Amino acid sequence: MKKRIYLAGPDVFLPNPAAAGERKKQLAAQYGFEGVFPLDATLNIQGLPLPQAGFAISDANENLMRTCHLIIANLTPFRGPSADVGTVYEVGFARALGLPVWGYTNTTDTFSDRTLAALGYPPQTDPASVSDPHGMHLEHFELTDNLMIDGGIHFSGGQFIKVSVPDNELFTNLQGFEECLKRIPSS
Amino acid sequence: MKKRIYLAGPDVFLPNPAAAGERKKQLAAQYGFEGVFPLDATLNIQGLPLPQAGFAISDANENLMRTCHLIIANLTPFRGPSADVGTVYEVGFARALGLPVWGYTNTTDTFSDRTLAALGYPPQTDPASVSDPHGMHLEHFELTDNLMIDGGIHFSGGQFIKVSVPDNELFTNLQGFEECLKRIPSS
Known about the structure:
- 2 copies of one chain form a homodimer.
- Chain A has 6 helices and 5 strands, in the order βαβαβαβααβα.
- Chain A is an alpha/beta fold.
- In chain A, helix 3 (85-97) packs parallel to helix 5 (147-156).
- The longest helix of chain A has 17 residues, at 50-66.
- In chain A, 50% of the residues are buried.
């Protein structure tokens, strides 16, 4: 049986998310895996009030993850220094289920450097000594994102792949995704 | 036996995180619970290289969560329209462990409205029709944050409490936290 990989990421917010999912599923198939995209769930949310429609999608995604053997998460920074929170929720969820968690990000700078840049601060030799305007300290462990994300991937047996891509391909370039597929044992 | 509550949140980035944890633990005790703060883990990270120190904290936090009966997460927006990603990871993790997930946020506006504001866009009657500069659509379900967070809390049996606080108390005001404690069944 092919391993089922849950394809987590903000790819669902792309202009044509179904096509984006199809591209990832075809690439997964080339490496002997079955890709499972969040939009694969059979859902009938027509006519549901908005909050209930959102809950139905959440429930469907959680159930899809429970049918998978591992997860590849697109952890490219999304509207801030960190990954999309919906994806991060799924990374934590998959980790607690005991699934191997693989991640990729289409950036190569550290979490500290991205956070400093987002705050408009100059580079620092010790980012841990710096606070934001709310007095909240910066995390500095030379990791790719918040330590719970990097740590969860590490202890699950997965890897966190970092690649550099042109800015106009930030959410569409699949080089990091394919690198995960190359490294994941097929059985 | 008192229920053990994992106290997730960016409170660990406050100038005096130990004191912040102590305040929450004392408040939890007043309502008959045992509060468990991320910094409670016995850790010896002195001398460890930075990435390994980060991994050790991640491992300790995951293990602490496995000893708890439920979680209260501070989901106040952190350096962007969404909650702190470390906290969101823990919400997903706790949800997959089957724990009730309670959340609070010291803001009352919707995720869509915060995202529009962060992008510098005017209010929209249909935020779902809007894209960011990367062409990524906005999520719009009249929820408090990404649907995975609101949905996970909802299906776990918890509640997501929203309060409005003065801006200088954004990460210290515990009114929403205490409201969770009031509503959580003590047995």
